[in-house]
Amino acid sequence: MRLATRVLGLLGLVASAAVVAADSRCFPEDFLFGSTTASYQVEGAVKEGGRTPSIWDEYCRTQPGLKCANVADDFYHRYKADVKLMVETGLQSFRFSVSWSRVMNWDAETSHMRPNAEGIAFYHSLIDELTSNGIVPILTIYHWDLPIELHTQLREEGWLDSEIIDHYVEYATLLFSEYGKKVNYWTTFNEPLSFSAGGYALGMGAPGYTGSQTQAYTATHNVLLSHAQTVKKFREMKTSNVVDDRARIGIVLNADFAYPLDASDPADVEAASRKMEFDVGWFLSPIISGDYPPVMREIVGDRLPQFYGDQPELLKGSYDLLMLNHYGSRQVTSCNSKSSNKDCDTLTPGFERDRGIDDSHIVPGTRQRSKKAQQDSHCASFTGYPPGYLETIKWLHKHDTSADILLTENGWCGDDEV
User: Fold this and answer.
1) Mean pLDDT, the chain cut into blocks of 10 residues (418 residues total)
2) Alpha-carbon dihedral of residues 315, 316, 318, 319, nearest 10 degrees?
3) Cβ neighbours around 134 below 10 Å, total
4) For residues 188 and 224, is the Cβ–Cβ distance under 8 A?
5) How many CB atoms lie within 10 A of CB 37?
6) What is residue 10's predicted lDDT score, i.e. its pLDDT?
7) Number of alpha carbons in the 13 Å side-chain half-sphere of residue 149
8) Sheet holding 185-190, edge to edge
9) Which fold has domain 5-410?
10) What residue spans define the domains of the chain?
11) DSSP 3-state assignment of 5?
């Protein structure tokens, strides 16, 4: 099967986590097994159906050795065959993302994106194909592929400009209007850590910026405000019966669990906690408490933006369920410890240096990659360690013990059977 299989599950955590811990063969009755994809990674057809380029088209074109997804899995043309494979595999759900530049194009006259009927029709057909085959659609509004024309037309470029908030809400509103009666699980963003820290601090992914002391924090701030405004719009459209009353929305956060390298060393314990707060709390804390984690306020200082006016209240509770991607666990120490493999001065200025950790240590007992996968540098971060998965779920749960958790991605890098 060309689609990478993932596990997705809705956990009423207090009850079901105990069941899973007691007997690894048991899953709650409403647990959904499924597959997850991203539009740019699988669709192909980059110049068909009215689609225009995204920042990933531009990024891959300028990165030596990086293959562009012009064809990819050719999902755009072969989705019906893939849905058939899902049925044959026994999958119950399918999470996919919408390509913003496929359903909307830049309008120079209005300086806004306008709907593209052909792109909108594609996702109607996909959703209908899924539901007619008994597969639950889970729709991701944004999986990193910002339209390149929108990115370049904004004064500060992309997520660095607060004007993007209105553009994003317009885009999300279009999707709610089109698919609101067909889709009951929605996520505003997939892994904002990956494209804010990765794309605006570390140069790892589009748009490829690095070295700034503030850009990742600014981008995240605008992402969070876009998320909050979109959830508000989603709930308004449920009230007006545009979106199905049963529909739920959240934001997908990604987290490797951080174990202290030396559990008896308070500095390592603090470093592990700092990694969790910078990687997950950065996004989770605002939607629960209305502000960033205190440790980030302390370390980052005035480089970390403030929330003003009604923004904290708009953020608080801007989710119907929590959503989690998890691929591995690490042992963590501070970058200035004797056990660190990284000198603090070598860390990229901004987010990475502020976080100030070395997370290169593999947890003993981690499932090793297959021999073939060991040759792939992209597999290095996929360090499967099942106890760490449960610890990550518990960490998320303790921040809101009443919330359901949707496990949106999990995987192991290898070509063997598990």
Assistant:
1) 39 34 68 95 98 98 92 98 97 98 98 99 99 99 98 97 99 99 99 98 97 98 99 99 99 98 98 99 99 99 99 99 97 98 97 98 86 70 90 98 96 68
2) 140
3) 10
4) no
5) 23
6) 45
7) 16
8) 5-7, 33-36, 93-97, 136-142, 185-190, 248-254, 322-326, 405-410, 9-11
9) TIM Barrel (3.20.20)
10) 5-410
11) strand
How far, in Å, CA of 222 to CA of 17, rounded? 34
Amino acid at 196: S
Spatial distance between the Cα atoms of 247 and 339, rounded to a whole number of angstroms: 48
Burial group, residue 218, by CB count within 10 angstroms (0-12, 13-18, 19+): buried
User: Residue 76, Cβ neighbours under 10 Å: how many?
Assistant: 21
H or E, element range at 249: strand 248-254
User: Which residues are CB-neighbours of 354 under 8 A, at least 6 positions away?
Assistant: 278, 296, 299, 300
pLDDT at 7: 38
Active site residues: 191, 409
The per-residue pLDDT for 19 is 34
Residue where the block lists tokens 């490797």 = 256
pTM of the model: 0.93
Distances (CA, A) of 188 to 24, 46, 139, 232, 238: 31, 23, 9, 12, 16
Which amino acid makes up residue 32? L
**Interstrand relation of 322-326 and 405-410 (parallel, antiparallel or unpaired):** parallel
Closest CA to 228 of 188, 175, 191: 188
User: Per the structure block, which two tokens stand in for 387?
Assistant: 């106890």
**Which residues, 6+ apart, have CB-to-CB distance to 204 below 8 Å?**
198
Quote the pLDDT of residue 23: 53
- Residue 235 CA to residue 314 CA, distance in Å, equals 12
